[in-house]
Amino acid sequence: MKAIFIFLAFLFFLDFSAQAQDTPNVSGAWTMNVQTDAGSGTPGFNLKQEGEKITGTYTGQLGEAPVTGTIKGKVIHLEFSIQGNLIKYDGTATATEMEGKVDLAGMATGTFKGTKK
């Protein structure tokens, strides 16, 4: 019985370790190439990651704003508010690249591709 418990605990540890390794570290400065039906731009993000939590700053055509988000595995979500309008970036990320969809408060949608500086 004790051997089964130890074996199950070992399997749980391996699964937890594998999940932690699958989550890239996105901390750092990023340049995004954004294409929307309302135009394009190349905003910058300065991100700090602590576990699954992301904080940081957006700087671009819309101004400057604090960013919050999450990363779970390779799935990333970033958001910030400019003049009461919620901007959302949803996609996938590695330690050096990310891509996905952007929603500009329902007024425009499009795609983004980012690279870490």
From TrEMBL:
Could you tell me the keywords of this UniProt record? Signal
The entry's protein name is Lipocalin-like protein
What species does this protein belong to?
A: Algoriphagus jejuensis
Give the signal sequence positions: 1-20
